[in-house]
C-alpha cells in the first residue's frame, strides 16, 4: 500500500505494511499539501524545515527505543540489547556514554584509514570489473562494509564473513518484519556478543594502537565503560557500521543508475567522492526515518501532540523538499542544506565520520571502472521504510577500457 487514506485534509499512511513505499509519489504529493501525515505509528513529518526544527525540540526524546515494543517485542536478549544503545539513552547517561565513545569515533581515526579504504575498493572492483556484470551486494557492498569494520577494529580482515553474516541478519531488527524474524535476529545477536567478548578479552590482555584498544581503555576522569557497556557498544558498532555502509552503497548505485551523466562525471572527477556521498544520502538515505517520542503534551505549528506520541521524521521526503532544494535534481557539484541521513541534534550518529569516508572513497573507484551502469530486473530490496537497502543487486555495465 503506497497511497494515503484520506482523513480530512491530513494524509494517512500504513507505514507498517511491508509493501508501503516511503519514497512514493503519494508521499511527495502529501508533502505538498501538509507538513505532516498520520501513520500506523503516530505522526510522520514530511518537510525539511519542520524536520530540522523537531530534531532539536526539547519536548521530544529519542523515539526508536520503543520500536521493538511497538512491534510486539517486549522482552528477551534483543530487547535488552536494544535498550542499552547510547542512541537510546537520555540526559547525563547519554552524555557519559558519548564522552567515553567519542574519541574512538573521531574524524582522525577515519582520515587515517582513507588510503586503506581506497585500496580495498580497488581490490574488490578488480575481481569483477573485466566482466559485464556482478552481484553488487555479495561481490562488493558486503565484503567492503565488513572489511572496513575489521580495519577499524584492528582485527584480521579475513574474519569479515562472520561480521557480514551475523550483522545482515541483525539488521532485520530495524525493519517492519522484526517480529517474524525474531528467532533469527536473536541467534545473530548471540553470535556477535560472543565475538565481541573474545575481542575485548584480547585487547585487555594486549593493548594495541587500534580503535578497539581505544574503546576498551577509554577513560574520562577515571570513568570507564563497564563490561556489558563495552560488549553492547561494540556489537552496535559492528552491526551499525556494516549495515549502514552496505545498504547505502547499494542505494548509491541505484541512484547513479538513474542519473548516468552524474556517474560519468564522477568517473572524470574522483575528487567529488565526498560530495557524491552527501548527495546520495540526501536523496536516497538508508535511514528512511528518524524517530522521536513526545515527553509531554505540546503544540507545534498549530498541531497538538500528546505525550507518548511517536513522531517520525522522514528523511527522503525532507531531503528532497522543493521548498529548500527546488525541483528534484541530483547534482554532485551542488552545495546543499544539510541532509538528515545521520540524524541530528543530541543523538547525531556517532560513526558518521567513518561512514562518510568509506562511501566517499568507494564511489569514485566504482565509477571509473563500471561504465553504462544498469540494474538488472531481478534485484531484491528490503521494504522501503525504516532502514532499507538491497538484499540482492545484480548490476550490468560496460568494463572501462
UniProtKB/TrEMBL annotation:
GO molecular function annotations of the record: heme binding; iron ion binding; monooxygenase activity; oxidoreductase activity, acting on paired donors, with incorporation or reduction of molecular oxygen
InterPro entries assigned to the protein according to its UniProt record, in alphabetical order: Cyt_P450 (IPR001128), Cyt_P450_B (IPR002397), Cyt_P450_sf (IPR036396)
UniProt entry keywords in alphabetical sequence: Plasmid
Family named by the database record: Belongs to the cytochrome P450 family.
Signal peptide boundaries: none
Protein species of origin: Streptomyces clavuligerus
One Pfam family this sequence matches: p450
Cross-referenced PANTHER family: CYTOCHROME P450 YJIB-RELATED (PTHR46696:SF1), P450, PUTATIVE (EUROFUNG)-RELATED (PTHR46696)
Gene3D superfamilies for this protein: Cytochrome P450
Protein name: Cytochrome P450
Record flagged with keyword Phosphoprotein: no
